[in-house]
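Data card: per-record layout.
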Amino acid sequence: MLKIKNLHATVEDKDILKGINLDVKPGEVHAIMGPNGSGKSTLASVVAGKDEFEITNGEVLLEGEDISELDPEERAHKGIFLSFQYPVEIPGVSVTNFIKTAINETRKSKGLKDMPAGEMLKLIKEKADMLEIDRKFLSRSLNEGFSGGEKKRNEIFQMAMMEPKLAILDETDSGLDIDALKIVANGVNKLKNDDNAVIVITHYQRLLDYIVPDYVHVLMDGKIVKSGSKELAYELEEKGYDWIKEELV
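The structure for this 249-residue chain is written out next.
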């Protein structure tokens, strides 16, 4: 699904990623943890193609294709979905219209016609019910006046509608109370299958109580310095990151 080889990346000539290697297979959930400033969000942004980051070495392969030179829109059409840490407000554009446009643009990139209105409406209702989203919510302007929990739930709704091959959740638990966290995690779990993959970027082990990872990776100073099972997340919660730094000395 996603293979990252010796990835180095900079922003404003500052080295952020310093040799990342990661192999994510279909059906897997990978959690990436690490202290502030370690490069977690940069990694998500580089995979998604945000243009303020420059790849200086290495490869990013999606299903065997090097996507390093593709722009974010092209990567999205190929099945990469990135949930933002701080989702943008778009006044005047409803959640439903935003989703319709995104789906039809992706279909157009594949040479398909727009999804018929009846089929679109049926899909919207199905996914909204799955995520326990009030229909009135879908007519509101995208993220305008939304609480932190509503913004995150809306992103998971977008993910449910787009059905990406690779979903990257960048600190999607940030600012969520426990009820919102459970609903978001439940949505992610329902969307997981043998044909897609999920990367969860988080500071905290608590999200991983609900979205159970197959692998946990610790990112420090731009490198993955330790990988393990979900038990590694509990160890990090208990001990912090200093013990890993001591191991590396």
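Known properties of this structure: The chain is about 35% helix and 30% strand. Helices lie at 40-48, 72-77, 95-109, 117-130, 148-162, 178-191, 231-239, 242-248.

See the next section for split statistics.
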